[in-house]
Design brief:
Number of helices: 10
Helix content: 40-55%
Largest sheet: 6 strands, parallel
Order of helices and strands: EHHHHHEHEHEHEHEH
Distance between the termini: 26 Å
Shape: globular
Length: about 260
């Protein structure tokens, strides 16, 4: 195998799979349930929260939206009886389903946003690749192994590292790829994600390891591509957060585009 030119690390949700009708639907269901049907956040509401760069974890995002609803009604969050474990259980009952052995929830109907042939094209182009996601490991492997058919993909998931924008998980993914494939420690890294937290992760990685080239590539998740106005707004948000470029789909990040990015 030729010497690897670059390492590309992918987020999963909104990049590898469309979670507009799964994770995001589960957020809306959860907030609606814990506000006694008084408030169901829109897709724009969820985007607005996530644009703050602090709410990559969807359990945390759900909880925060519940808190903010009650605060808008002049209630203090410290006075609310909101049990996190109960909230998580409800969320998971929607996302995975109620049977832990046989998932029947929203996760079962997530469309793929990239195909195995694309990843193979990266391999053929001497580009190493892996995954760093805030999803739980078994939920990430559901798509990577179950739908994409990947065998033992390099993956750092929720259980393995602090949540984004902490770059610890990104560093761990890169280290695994370096160890497995004998990649030089100076090899540039591209992180591909669809949220502000993903771009902030790259910014923090750059500050902690300034001797290496770190590039953030933004992806427009399907739910923001319905109107040009939302596309433009979301693109601007990702660029402001540090994205070097924003694509409509991860497969647009071809080996040719990667070379262009590294020349800039």
């Amino acid at each position: 195998m030729p010497k690897q030119k670059v390492i590309v690390v992918f987020d999963i949700d909104g990049v590898v799979r469309d979670v507009g009708g799964s994770y995001r639907r589960a957020i809306a269901d959860t907030v609606e349930h814990f506000t006694s049907s008084a408030y169901r956040p829109t897709s724009e509401d969820i985007d607005s929260l996530k644009s703050e760069g602090l709410w990559n974890n969807d359990w945390d995002a759900s909880q925060e939206l519940v808190y903010r609803y009650f605060e808008s009604k002049s209630q203090l969050r410290s006075h609310l009886d909101l049990d996190r474990d109960t909230l998580i259980a409800f969320f998971q009952s929607r996302y995975r389903g109620t049977n832990p052995e046989n998932w029947t929830g929203y996760i079962c109907s997530e469309p793929l946003l990239l195909q195995p042939a694309y990843l193979e094209s990266l391999t053929q182009g001497a580009i190493a690749w892996g995954f760093f996601s805030g999803a739980m490991r078994d939920e990430a492997l559901y798509v990577l192994q179950g739908k994409l058919g990947l065998t033992s993909p390099v993956l750092v998931a929720m259980e393995d590292a602090p949540g984004k924008p902490d770059p610890t998980g990104l560093f761990a993914t890169v280290e695994q790829l370096q160890y497995q494939q004998g990649i030089d420690e100076s090899t540039p890294v591209i992180y591909v994600g669809d949220t502000v937290a993903d771009m902030y992760t790259v910014e923090k990685a750059r500050k902690l390891q300034p001797s290496r080239v770190w590039v953030g590539v933004g992806i427009l998740p399907p739910h923001v591509q319905q109107t040009q106005e939302r596309r433009d707004c979301y693109t601007a948000t990702l660029m402001k957060a540090g994205a070097a470029i924003v694509f409509s789909n991860a497969e647009e990040l071809t080996p040719v585009e990667i070379e262009k990015l590294l020349r800039n």
